[in-house]
Input
Amino acid sequence: MRIAIFSDIHGNKEALTAIIEDIKKENIDEVICLGDTIGIGPNPKECLDLIINNNIKMVFRKL
Output
């Protein structure tokens, strides 16, 4: 099983799009985002939409 893992997108839609495009070129079985997807950058909603629409699993901590 091949797993792609990434983190620290911080609302950067262009970076996330590039990551997703690279992952699609590989034979990846599962994609996991470790967090820091939103905040700081200009496109937090768009980043979350990309995560959801590409069935990317996310790690989160329940407070």
